[in-house]
Amino acid sequence: MSDRATTTTTERPAGPRIPGPVAPGAPGSKPNDLWPSTKRLLRRLRPHRIAVGVVLLVAAVSVVLTSIAPRMLGQGTNLIFDGIIGAQLPAGMSKDQAVAALRADGQNTFADMVSGMAVVPGVGIDFSALGRVLAIVLALYLGSSVFMWLSGFLLNIIVQGVVKNLRAEVERKIHRLPLRYFDSHSRGDLLSRVTNDIDNVSQSLQQTMSQLIVSAMTVIGILVMMIVISPLLALIAVLTVPLSILVTAQIAKRSKTHFVSQWKSTGALNSHVEEAYTGHELVTVFGRSREVEARFEEQNEALYQASYRAQFISGLIMPAIMFLGNLNFVAIAVLGGMRVASGTMSLGDVQAFIQYSRQFTQPLTQIGAMVNLMQSGVASAERVFAILDEDEEQPDLTEAPTPAEPLGRVEFSDVSFSYSPEKPLIEKLSLVAEPGQMVAIVGPTGAGKTTLVNLILRFYELDGGKILLDGVDIAEMSRDDLRSRIGMVLQDAWLFGGTIRDNIAYGRPDATEEEIQAAARISYVDRFVHSLPDGYDTVIDEEGSNISAGEKQLITIARAFISQPSILILDEATSSVDTRTELLVQHATAVLRSDRTSFVIAHRLSTIRDADLIVVMEDGRIVEQGSHDDLLLTRGAYYRLYNSQFVGAEV
């Protein structure tokens, strides 16, 4: 949206949330199957598939180097063991002669072992060969570490790019969502999805993807090396894999629901905290601190229980897989020792195989340990995707018409609208506001006054009828074009963190300093701004607590004035200020209304006596319209409202 459009929407006063259907991933909805969200999250890697291919290649090189190293280290062990045994045998004879002598001496087991070794009787350890083996092993591990670091570095760039794009997509989506969505969703939960859940997705991808890639490749590489050394022992090691997968799947199935509940509870708790802090003064004034604390304790306890159960159940995966790995280690150690004693395997090969068996189960253990993190990240991704799947505002026409001249004539023609189909609000409403007219809209609370001006801004789409701006249907205009022609001043003034100058210029960012000060003078901002320490450079804090409510309202009027709209909407702009400031605001708005069509929503009927047209609404219908004097003479709805304020409330 354009800046002007943003000005309009952000000034909308916060109000009670309208109940609506529970969105997917919102607190209270049923947990969905996480696999579709997992696939959807992984599909976001497609634009980076070349980089992912490089990561896989680099990781594969690292795994290959790591897989070769134990076999080389086993050769070093063979050199040491062969040297020790060779030094114990008589020099001057061949290995076959030494084996025969041992058998003749009744040492058959020792003879079997020596027959499977590369010993030279009378010769000790070959330290030069051992040094070369150790140097190769060192180079292998060093190279593996370098390639591992490189794969992690590249993967970090990919993951952060994916999360950056996801965050930007969510931001763009929010600006395309209709106001109806924000009315039906908790602000705290929405903020939690945009911040906490996306951060959790980032953390989960960062920590799991690298480990998953390396672990999967390690399992394959180690399995190949084990088969090369001993197919029989490799078969024993592989037997633990289906058991590990079965255990992981069963435990993950039970923890999935709790991870979904954990992040739903996080959103609900954030919503409560945001609401309690925003309304802290009201909570204190009405003495509801205990109720707020009790509600916090209830939601905090729900979050604790969900988090505890998710982490506890998923935490069982790693110990279970480690137990299976230890059983596998014992079986391989016993059988390997027997084969060394029989001379069918060398000690170095058994040592290498035992090391491979530990490395083989370690990736499975790591994958099991990461399941909880993956489930947590996918649960968060599901909540983020729920925002991206929401229905958007209807797109603008490709060639949207625009009024030839910005006169400011607004016509409602048989307009119908309702927030929900079963409760009609506005039906067959017709009204014409001529250029330059001041149209005041009055009526009891819930009559549809604010809804009427929201329809002019296309915050909601009509159910029937048309609204014409200078003869052009606003449903056919682009929203940016429509809202750039409308200025709005609300009852609850909203200012951004920044200087007074920045807040005034928000209505038109390209405004010059002279134009900013001119708008400030017309709106009486210039009267108080010079009493501030830094004048127009005074920084307004987040709550705008360093200036008064009336001063904030005058700044919003200056902001609307500098945008030079052809239509002005004033929604109870003077209701929250004192009498003296009200006069200033009235004078400022009178100047602002000059030569502009203006819609004024008012409860203080004294402020709209000079309106060109007063529209009285009840239950979404216009029951009366006319001038102040004419409506008093009819002694109808307006007459009763007027008397309730200036004579006495009718019972």
UniProtKB/TrEMBL annotation:
Q: How does it sit in the membrane?
A: Multi-pass membrane protein
Mark the transmembrane ranges.
50-69, 133-159, 212-229, 235-252, 316-338
InterPro entries, A to Z: AAA+_ATPase, ABC1_TM_dom, ABC1_TM_sf, ABC_transporter-like_ATP-bd, ABC_transporter-like_CS, P-loop_NTPase, Type_1_exporter
Region entry Disordered: which residue ranges? 1-34
Domain ABC transmembrane type-1 span(s) in chain numbering: 54-376
Gene Ontology terms for molecular function: ABC-type oligopeptide transporter activity; ATP binding; ATP hydrolysis activity
Q: Per the record, where are the segments of Polar residues compositional bias?
A: 1-11
Q: What does the UniProt keyword field contain?
A: ATP-binding, Membrane, Nucleotide-binding, Transmembrane, Transmembrane helix, Transport
Where is this protein primarily located? membrane
PROSITE patterns per record: ABC_TM1F, ABC_TRANSPORTER_1, ABC_TRANSPORTER_2
GO cellular component term, pick one: plasma membrane
Positions of the ABC transporter domain: 410-644
List, alphabetically, the CDD domains matched: ABC_6TM_Tm288_like, ABCC_Glucan_exporter_like
Alphabetical list of SUPFAM superfamilies matching this protein: ABC transporter transmembrane region, P-loop containing nucleoside triphosphate hydrolases
Give its localization.
Answer: Cell membrane
Q: Which family does it belong to?
A: Belongs to the ABC transporter superfamily. Lipid exporter (TC 3.A.1.106) family.
Please describe what this protein does: ABC transporter involved in fatty acid import. Transmembrane domains (TMD) form a pore in the membrane and the ATP-binding domain (NBD) is responsible for energy generation.
Q: What is the designated name of this protein?
A: Fatty acid ABC transporter ATP-binding/permease protein
Biological source species: Rhodococcus wratislaviensis NBRC 100605
Q: What is the lineage of its organism?
A: Bacteria, Bacillati, Actinomycetota, Actinomycetes, Mycobacteriales
